[in-house]
Amino acid sequence: MTGPLAGMRVVDVTTNISGPTLTMILADLGAEIIKIERPGTGDDARGMGPFMSGEGVYFLHINRNKESVVIDLKKQDGKQIVYDLVESADVFVENFRQGKAEQMGLGYAKLKAINNQIIYCSLSAYGQSGPQKLQPGYDAIAQAETGIMGINGAKDAELARVPVSILDQGSAMWGVIGILSALLHRKHTGEGQFVSTSLYETGLFWSSYHMLSFLATGEEPQKNGSGHTAFAPYGAYLASDTYIMIGISNQSLFERLCRVLNSMEWLSDQRFRDNKNRVENQYILKEKIELILQRETADYWVTELSAAGIPSSKVKKISEVIDAKQTEALDMWEQVTHDTIEDLRLPRLPFQLSKSTPKVKTASPKLGENTDYVLQSLGYTQERIAELSSSQVIAPYEKELKNR
Does the keyword Ribosomal protein apply (predicted)? Predict the structure, then answer.
C-alpha cells in the first residue's frame, strides 16, 4: 500500500457505518487496516441492502482497501490474537457502546499495557461522560437528540432526518483528525494516547450556528425548508419543469438577480431594499420570483443565472449526479476490480494531494479472506492456525453469510 500513511498498521474492530468510515479514510491514505469481524455474519453492514451481486452497497463503499480477519473475540485465544496484533500496531479503533471494550478485555488501559505507543480511538454515540454515555445510538437517533431533525425540512412537513449519514460519517472525519493529531504528537514525544469522538458531539458542532442564534435572540430556530434564516432570496424556486436552488447572500447578487429576471423595480421596493427587509418578506418575494421562473425551464434559468455570476443549480436527482460533467471532470469515481461485480466504481475521498493522493486500490474483502495471511504475518504456524480454526476461534474464509 502506498500513500502518506503507508507502513502504518490499524487494528479495526468497528461495525456498521461510523467506525468503518473512519478506517476507510485511513485505508485510502495508505494505512494497513486489519478488520476484525465476528464469525458467521461479520460486520452488520454486510447485510445492509440493496445488494450488488450479493454484496451490500454500504459495505462495498466503506470497507475498500481493508483486510478481513474473522476472530471470535468472546474466546481468550481470539483476544490473544488481537493482543498480538496490537503489539505491532500504530492505531486501534472501536465503536462499541461505552464500556463494552473494557468488558471484552479491549479497553485502552489493557492495550496501552501491551503497547504504550498505541493510538486508541473510541467512537461512541454519546461520548465519554454524561448521563447518556452508556446509551446506544444511531445516526438518526443522534440527529433527533442534537436538534438537527427538529429544524430539518419544510415548515409544515412531516419530521425528516437528513437522509445521509451525516453524524456517522461526520464523527468518522473528526476521529481521523484526532488520530492524525495524536500520531503527530507521538512523532514529537513518543507518547501514545486516547482519542475520542461521538455522534452527539458531532451533531452539537454541526448545529452550533442555530444554538448560537437562540442564545443571541432567545427565539427557537424554526424549519427553513430549502431556505435560510440569514439571507433572502435563498432557497428552491419552481421553474416550469422543476426546482432551482438560488443563493443570494449580498446586495450585489440581488441586483444581478433583478437584472436577469427583468425586475429592476424590486430594488426600489421598500420590502426588498436590503437583506433584512427581504428576509422579513421572503415569502412575498418568493411568489414574485416563481411567477417569472415558471415561464421557462430550470436549465434555461440556470444558464442565465450562471452567466450573471449568481450561485444557482437545478435541484438534481441522484441519477443525474452520478455521471454529471462536473463529477466526471473531478474523477470522483475510481474503477475497482471485484470478483463478482463487473465495472465496480467507488467514489474517492473528497480531497486530493498533489504528491501522495489517496487511492482506492482494492474492493471490500470477503469475510475472513485475509485471516490466514494476517496470522502468518504474526508468526503463527500452519498447525496453530489449523488448531484455532478447528476450535472455531478463527474462520479463514466464510463463503456464505448466515444472514443472507
Answer: no
Do 46 and 103 reside in the same domain of the chain?
yes
What confidence tens digit (pLDDT) does each residue in 296-308 have? 999 999 999 999 9
- Vertex 209 angle, CA 208 and 213, to 5°: 115
Q: Could you give the CA distance from residue 180 to residue 27 in angstroms, rounded to a whole number?
A: 13
Task: Point out which residues pair with 11 in neighbouring strands.
Answer: 34, 92
What percentage of residues in the chain have a pLDDT greater than 70? Answer: 98
What is the domain range of residue 144? Answer: 9-206+328-395
- Alpha-carbon span 179 to 195, nearest angstrom: 7
Residue 56 belongs to a domain: yes
Q: Measured between alpha carbons, how far is 388 from 82 in angstroms, rounded to an integer? A: 14
Helix (H) or strand (E) holding 314: strand 312-314
> Measured between alpha carbons, how far is 345 from 289 in angstroms, rounded to an integer?
40
Judged by average pLDDT, the poorest of 13-22, 108-117, 226-235 is 226-235
Of 264, 281, 314, which residue is a domain's last? 314
Q: What total of structural domains would you count in the chain?
A: 2
Stretch 183-200: mean pLDDT: 98
CA–CA distance, 175 with 364 (Å, rounded to integer): 21
Residue-wise pLDDT for 283-298, tens only, equals 999 999 999 999 999 9
Select which of 77, 168, 299, 343 is catalytic: 168
Please give the Cα distance from 293 to 244 (Å, whole number): 9
Specify the pTM.
Answer: 0.94
Q: Is 168 a catalytic residue?
A: yes
Closest CA to 363 of 350, 344, 387, 342: 344
Q: Residue 163 is which amino acid?
A: P
CA-CA-CA-CA torsion sign (383, 385, 388, 392): negative
CA distances from 285 to 179, 236, 288, 327 (A): 48, 13, 5, 33
Q: What is the DSSP string of 340-390?
A: S-TTEEEEPPS---SSS-----SPPPPTTTTHHHHHHHTT--HHHHHHHHH
Sign of CA dihedral 182, 187, 191, 192: positive
